[in-house]
Amino acid sequence: MPATPTANSRRTPGSGEGPEPAPPRLANLPARAKLERLLRVAKGRKKALVLTHDNPDPDSIAAAVALAHLLKERADVEEARVGYGGIIGRAENIAFVKVLRLPVVPIAQLDLDEYDLLALVDTQPPTGNHAIPPRLRGEVDIVIDHHPLRNESLESPFADVGGDFGSTSTMLVEYLRAAGLEPSTEVATALFYGLKADTRDLGRETTQTDIDTYLWLFPRMHKHLLAQIEHPELPARYFQLYHTAFERAKVYGDTAIVTDLEEVYSPDMVAEVAERLMFLEGMKWSLAYATYRNQLFLSLRVKDRRMNAGRLIREICEDYGGSSGGHGSMAGARIPLSGRATQRKAVKRELVRKFLEAFGVADERPVGLLSAPSP
């Protein structure tokens, strides 16, 4: 995939005058200017593939669908597909895709070599939390993500990363509005729910732009469809998983709660449980972890403003391989597991110990158990 030079490309020194001054990052430019640069990168391309992060959440899916629509309508791309790695497992997320009829396809059904424009949303090339193979990570043309910037992402011709947004859906609405594109009811509902879910209904890491976007989308989205997404029927294994979560949960120092979900039917349930455990009175930290297909998934939630969840989980998990990332109050990681059951348990114990040290409760016994500890 040929790279089109843009403001994010590496600059070469001018003749005899030293390096040229670095241009402003895309994240700091107005939406109209970003849109113009995006369209320049996409100009002349025929087939675009927009990928979410693995096991995508509504924010990632909504942003990807919106970007595909934008590329097709304004960049004259003949085909724009949305793909994802992993699974869509939570009941709400399954309903989200089904009710809104969102055109997303598992990566196994796609041939990446067929596309001459490659985009990532709600994730970045160096994180590894996506389905792009290592041989193609240097070929990503477009990166749009509200998470903190990974410097390697700036090697992509277009990288709008690390701006002041609570969701990637917010960013895509900015692009649609700059392009004069009115989203369909289904896409507007998707973007609304993506923003709503990622900011916990504007209650977490929300900016004024998120609020303005929420209000802009509200009259455009379908309230009845939203209700079907937010209140789906739940399988029996959902309640069995929560039984395990509560049964195995331990509270440390009256401020941190940790639970081992053992084997889960969907890795995105780990994040849901970590989120739910933060509702326990007095908690400043929650950590949930579980295995899924020989990988360990961890999800961290933080109320302590002195700590950054994304930075902490990367520091703790980076030596174990896999991928990790997040931002101020929420983060996740995926670590490959190998060896016998005893070795896997040892890895879990070691990770929990490191998190407890970071929480400042490493020397305390678990107290306030929600149930008796397992033998």
Tell me what you see in this structure.
By secondary structure, the protein is an alpha/beta fold. It folds into 2 domains: 26-230, inorganic pyrophosphatase (n-terminal core), CATH 3.90.1640; 237-367, Diaminopimelate Epimerase, Chain A, domain 1. The protein has helices at 31-42, 58-74, 91-99, 168-179, 185-198, 208-217, 223-230, 236-248, 268-277, 309-317, 341-359, and strands at 47-51, 79-84, 104-106, 117-121, 142-145, 158-161, 250-252, 256-263, 285-292, 295-302, 323-326, 330-336, 366-367. The strands form 2 sheets. Strands 11-12-10-9-8-7-13 form a 7-stranded mixed sheet, sandwiched between helices. Strands 3-2-1-4-5-6 form a 6-stranded parallel sheet, with helices on one face. Helix 9 (268-277) links the parallel strand 8 and strand 9. The protein is globular.
Features:
375 residues, alpha/beta, inorganic pyrophosphatase (n-terminal core), Diaminopimelate Epimerase, Chain A, domain 1, 2 domains, 7-stranded mixed beta sheet, 6-stranded parallel beta sheet, 13 strands, globular, disordered N terminus, disordered C terminus
Measured as a percent range, the helix fraction is: 25-40%
What is the radius of gyration computed over CA atoms, rounded to a whole number of angstroms? Answer: 21 Å
Return the CATH class of the largest domain.
Alpha Beta
Classified in CATH, the superfamily of the largest domain is inorganic pyrophosphatase (n-terminal core)
